[in-house]
Amino acid sequence: QVQLVESGGGLVQAGGSLRLSCAASGRMFDSYVVGWLRQAPGMEREFVAAVAGGNDSNSLYADSVMGRFTISRDNAKNTVYLQMKDLELEDTGVYYCSAGAGNLRAWRNDYWGQGTQVTVSL
After folding, report:
1. DSSP letter string over the chain?
2. Each residue of 29-76: pLDDT tens digit?
């Protein structure tokens, strides 16, 4: 069993930066793919970024955040980060961390955090 806790959300002006953290407890976290997804009000939850598990350091990004967001993981701290810069109004939403077995071509979102709110204002 893995438990995920997100933090780092908040209110930021457009063009600003935030760093989200996803802290995990439980076994095998370092072997899981960890992803960030977000959900804006009235919208479907959408993929943002994911990082591979184990010794694979590859990552994957949605087109909408490519070049602005960076996902990274520190397995010693059981934590995955999402560094966000040049934030846009459209980045507003609840950001969720998920983890599960697989690889970046196909993985399962077996575990979810409770989400952290990111609000981008003018």
Report:
1. --EEEEE--EEEETT--EEEEEEEESTTGGGSEEEEEEE-TTS--EEEEEE--TT---EEE-TTTTTTEEEEEEGGGTEEEEEE-S--GGG-EEEEEEEESEETTEE---EE---EEEEEE-
2. 889 999 999 999 999 999 999 999 988 889 999 999 999 999 999 999
8 Å CB contact between 50 and 71: yes
The predicted-structure confidence for 90-121, as pLDDT tens digits, reads as follows: 999 999 999 999 999 898 999 999 999 999 99
Q: Provide the b/e sequence for 16-25 (b: ≥16 CB within 10 Å).
A: eebebbbbbe
